[in-house]
Amino acid sequence: MGNLHSLYVDQWDWERTITADDRNIAFLKRIVRKIYAAMLRTEYLINETYPQLEPFLAGEVFFIHAEELRRRYPEMTPKEREDAITHEYGSVFIMGIGAPLGDGEPHDLRAPDYDDWSTPNEEGYLGLNGDLLVWNPILNRAMELSSMGIRVDRESMLHQLKLSGQEERSKLYFHSKLLAGKLPLCIGGGIGQSRLCMLFLQKAHIGEIQASIWPDEMRASCRTAGIPLI
User: Fold this and answer.
1) Residue ranges of the domains in the chain?
2) Which of 118, 167, 194, 219 has the greatest CB tally within 10 Å of its CB?
3) In this structure, what DSSP letter does residue 147 have?
4) Band of residue 140 on the pLDDT scale cut at 50, 70, 90
5) What is the DSSP string of 71-114?
6) Which fold has domain 11-223?
7) Do the beta carbons of residue 158 and residue 114 sit within 8 Å?
8) DSSP 20
9) Residue 168 burial (CB < 10 Å; 0-12/13-18/19+)?
10) How many Å apart are CA 111 and CA 21, to the nearest integer?
11) Separate counts of helices (H) and strands (E) for the chain
12) Residue 118 to residues 36, 101, 129, 145: CA-CA distances in angstroms?
């Protein structure tokens, strides 16, 4: 638990059916831009209602693959890279999260039966997924708003289950349906509800937005800093 993490998790989960021709980076970027455009519009309406809040979101999303990010900041940890690139560009979508990078390590972990992080894409890297991050000027750090991507198809699920040593999961209900071709291809993700509210209202702690359970020492620390937890 902390400024961005609570025992209570609330998010919008969404899925959209696609065709085989949509399984590419260009389509992924188009969907990310649509989601981000809605965030920009929401920020505008909030700032119009509460003029004391100054807009801060970047005008567009900067796209970068996790391997490009690693090469850009080779001495940093993945989280340090996220802070560095997001501080520079304001809003960033990091692609290819889950596959091993040039140093043998993934940028972050992903389940093998969710997003497609192993399929070679048209930009010469692996993966059709990613995370949307923005720079939070209140916390002075990058803030993840959405993890999303083109979902696995039959080939990528089998490949990722094998890579992760979890091939026995192919017998589970969802997995067997997908492998039998009985489920549509899709893209989807989750968008943090409280995180968005926290960001737009420029709050320092997620406990200012949602009711949850917090350790006594955290409540005391927040009171000292003038942060009222619900």
Assistant:
1) 11-223
2) 118
3) E
4) very high
5) HHSTTS-HHHHHHHHHHHHSEEEEE--SSB-TTS-BSS---TTS
6) BirA Bifunctional Protein; domain 2 (3.30.930)
7) no
8) G
9) exposed
10) 24
11) 7, 6
12) 25, 11, 9, 23
